[in-house]
Amino acid sequence: MPRIVVDVMPKPEILDPQGKAIVGALPRLGFTSFSAVRQGKRFELTVDGEVTEDILAQARDAAETLLSNPVIEDVVNIEVVEA
């Protein structure tokens, strides 16, 4: 069954305390090549049957109204992933 993957990230101007905590922990674990981390959310919407333009439009609407908070987050990617 195909899935629609929605990726949501904090807007660039919004502080990301989880990302800051992760970037602080990386050097202590030996990962010294990274200077910044932003943590986001990933949603996988499983579709029974074919992904039509109407279903994709519904996924976009859900991403903008339910899966993200448009005040502080951006929907950065919506893609169809075949099973």
UniProtKB/TrEMBL annotation:
GO BP terms, alphabetized: 'de novo' IMP biosynthetic process
Predominant place of localization: cytoplasm
GO molecular function: ATP binding; phosphoribosylformylglycinamidine synthase activity
Main enzyme class: ligase
Pathway terms, separated by semicolons: Purine metabolism; IMP biosynthesis via de novo pathway; 5-amino-1-(5-phospho-D-ribosyl)imidazole from N(2)-formyl-N(1)-(5-phospho-D-ribosyl)glycinamide: step 1/2
Location(s), subcellular: Cytoplasm
UniProt keyword annotations, A-Z: ATP-binding, Cytoplasm, Ligase, Nucleotide-binding, Purine biosynthesis
EC number: 6.3.5.3
Pfam families membership: PurS
Entry-linked InterPro entries: PurS, PurS-like_sf
Catalytic activity: N(2)-formyl-N(1)-(5-phospho-beta-D-ribosyl)glycinamide + L-glutamine + ATP + H2O = 2-formamido-N(1)-(5-O-phospho-beta-D-ribosyl)acetamidine + L-glutamate + ADP + phosphate + H(+)
Record's GO cellular component terms: cytoplasm
Assembly mode: Part of the FGAM synthase complex composed of 1 PurL, 1 PurQ and 2 PurS subunits.
Family designation: Belongs to the PurS family.
Main function: Part of the phosphoribosylformylglycinamidine synthase complex involved in the purines biosynthetic pathway. Catalyzes the ATP-dependent conversion of formylglycinamide ribonucleotide (FGAR) and glutamine to yield formylglycinamidine ribonucleotide (FGAM) and glutamate. The FGAM synthase complex is composed of three subunits. PurQ produces an ammonia molecule by converting glutamine to glutamate. PurL transfers the ammonia molecule to FGAR to form FGAM in an ATP-dependent manner.
HAMAP family linked: PurS
Name of the protein in its database record: Phosphoribosylformylglycinamidine synthase subunit PurS
Lineage: Bacteria, Bacillati, Actinomycetota, Actinomycetes, Micrococcales
Gene: purS
